[in-house]
Each structure stands twice: as C-alpha cells, then as structure tokens.
Amino acid sequence: MATLLIFFVFMNLDVLLRMGHCTETRDQILSITPKTQEHVDILRNISTQYETALWQPVSPQYIKEETQVHLFVPANSSETVKDLLQRHAVTHEVLLANANELIEMQTRNDSTDPRSGSTFYERYHSLEDIYYWINRTAHDNPNRVKIILVGSSYEKRPLYALKLSFNNRTNKKAMWIDCGIHAREWVSPAFCLWFVHYSLSFYNINQDITHILDNMDVYVLPVLNPDGYKYTWTSNRMWRKNRSISKTTSCIGVDLNRNFDANWCTEGASHDPCTEIYCGTFPESEPESQAVANFLRSHKDTVQLYLTIHSYSQMLLFPYSCTLEEAENHRDLLEMAQEAAQKIRRYYRNIYRYGAGAKTIYFAPGGSDDWAYNLGIKYSFTFELQDRGRYGFLLPPSHISGACNEALLAVKTIALKVIQKTQAPTSPSPTF
Ligand code: 9B3
Ligand code: ZN
Ligand code: ZN
Questions:
Q1: Domain with CATH 3.30.70.340 in the chain
Q2: Does domain 25-97 correspond to CATH entry 2.40.380.10?
Q3: What would the pLDDT profile of 114-169 be if each residue is shown by its tens digit?
Q4: C-alpha dist (Å) from residue 255 to 140, 169, 245, 269, 313
Q5: Is 56 a pocket residue for ligand 1 (Cβ < 6 Å)?
C-alpha cells in the first residue's frame, strides 16, 4: 500500500513538473521550409508583423518556396506564431528550444571560474572587455602592436584598429581585417581577437603566419559597430545594425554593410529605416562606415587584401555582390576561395561554399567588400563563419576555437596567395 502511495505521489509530481516545464515557454529558433506561395506570404507576414527576428534570410523579401527559413521567436510571441503556422498548415521544426539558456551561457563571465577549461579567446567578451584587451595587447607588445583610432561611432565610442607590424621593411604592403559590422554575429569579433593572439603567439613558430607577417602589416579592427555590439549585450541579442536615429521614423539603425558606395541602395537594400537592410540616407552616411572608408582611401596604395568577417552560413564570398557582373580578376578570386575552402574541408571536415556574392548568397548592394574592391583593393573577401544554422548567431563558446581555426586557415591561405601573386619573394616561400 505504502509503495503504491509513493508511486502515485511520484507520478503526480512528474506530471506537475512536466506541465510546469511546458507552460514556461522560452525563446526559440524555428526552422520552416515554405512549400507554397501561400506559406511564403504567411512567413513574410509573421516576420514583419510579429515580434520575431528573421535569421535567415536576412530580409522577408528573400523568403522563397523550398528554402529554409530560420526564425527567432521570443517567448511572448511563441504561442501566436505557432498558432498562425498551425492554422495554415505550415510545419515547423524547433532548431533551438531554449535560446535563453544559450544566451545566458554566452554572457556569463566565467573568467573567474577555475572549472571552466576555456581560455580568454574561447569566450565572448563585452565591449568594455574588448577595449581593455586592445589596450593591454598594445601595451604588452610595444614593438609589434600599435593602436590606431580610425574614427568614432554614432554614439561616440572609439573605433580602434590594431596595426600588427613585425619589421620596418620599406614599401611594405598590408592587409585589413574588420570584424563585427553586424552586431549579433558574435563569433566575428571573437575571430579578430583570435587572429591577433595567434599572430603574436605563433610568429617564428608557424611558417605560414611568419611568412605573412614578414611581408605584410596587418590592420585589425575588432568591432566595427561598437554601439550595436553593446546593444546586443544589454538589450537585444538579435540586433544587426548600428544605433543611429532616423529623422523620419522611430526605427533605429542602419545596416552598415549596405551603407558603402557600391551601387548604393539598389535591389537588395532598402530605404525603409524599419528594415534590417536599411541603407541609410546616403553612401557613408554613418560614422562607422565613413571611418573605415576614409582609412582605406588613405591607405589604398599599401593595402592589398581586404577581409571582412561575418556569420553565419560558412561561405567565402568575393565581389561582386552588388551586380551580376564578374570582377575583372574573377578567376584569381575564385581560385583563392576554392583553395581556402578545400583546406578547410581537408583539415577540419567542414564544407564552405564560395563564389561571387550575388550568385552565391543574394543580390546585395552597398557592401564593404565590393566598395574596397572598386577602390582598387583587388583581393577582397567576405567570410561567413560557422555554423550553418544549428545555433546560428548563438554559436556556443565551445565552438569558437573550431570556427576561428578554420577561418584562420582560410585567411592564411588567401594572404599567402596574395603575397605570391604580387610580391617578389624576399625569403623562401613555404611550400603549399
Ligand atoms: C552582403 C554584401 Cl552587401 C556584400 N557585399 N557581401 C556580403 C554580404 C553578406 C552579409 C550581409 O551583409 O548580408 C552577410 Se551577414
Ligand atoms: Zn553580417
Ligand atoms: Zn551573415
């Protein structure tokens, strides 16, 4: 009898627990593949009318039949959204049932927790931590690292780049890497930190990075969009744009990767400040894009390679995104991207797609890579790092090292190629 009683108590307890768990809905990521035009219309409606964040594609206009849509649905709109989907017989898959937990994991400051085996570079860092890291890195490596103030953000935060320069060779060329144009793509700033740390740690140990730093200076801008990045830490993890205020609406932010002067605001961008792909009021209207453009204009004779780091979807893109026309050195760019993708596949077993932006991802004007290319930097790439949608923008910290190592391999492969194609060898080239 007693055992029976205990049995019932436990059964009910279990039911109660499960109910409690189910009613407490969390922020979720849904994957939905529209099968008909009606489904497409419903999804466009949901992603514009309800409090959601479209992860993939970047804007509702790109939603099309038979192509996966990734949608972030906050807990408070979960019921309404699922109801709508169900009523129109649109099936969905839950990619992430509890995004809150992941977000909490990524913002936890476990630097003081000795049980976490991860290093500084295997965690995400707040903007303040990154500013502190920039200062400390320059201070600790006075002969190799200089801080350059390239401008300031809309909210007047400094835009710092690090210049890595390992010797004073005359006529030295350079490459540029920027990270964090898009606020929510957190693995991007993490990569810039990773790259600087790797350069400082493996010079004279790894042959490839040694050859690169012997022949090029490297400018690294870890957070191009500090206002947006700050905002993803304090208010909205899914924020993409900068934080500039529009004169005509209450909507905030310009997509900095639509604000450069490359077929500015044609198809693939929007004049509507309320969209995620708002191009701003004129090319370089934003202080962040203007600062980068000014710096590159004044260094265009030395900078040979432009790299900009985004996430997610695992792609290596090159110009053009703003037109279907082929770049004049398309074959070169394709060959470099292909070689980089092949190495990632061989060493890390991950597949990266590659190609001209407009044909590989979507038609998109006003991007920094196209603009830099037209300025005369003939080697210009956008990297989209891990993953392919499993965690999307919420890539767990435990994946940072994998994502950064494979991207680093691609950077090294491409930079070595640029040196090989453009510079007379001063020291023996490493064998590929
Ligand atoms: C977009 C453009 Cl405009 C470009 N020139 N190159 C790459 C992209 C893709 C990124 C974007 O801004 O949408 C991916 Se997050
Ligand atoms: Zn991006
Ligand atoms: Zn992206």
A1: 25-97
A2: no
A3: 566 789 999 999 999 999 999 999 999 999 999 999 999 999 999 999 999 999 99
A4: 35, 38, 12, 9, 19
A5: no
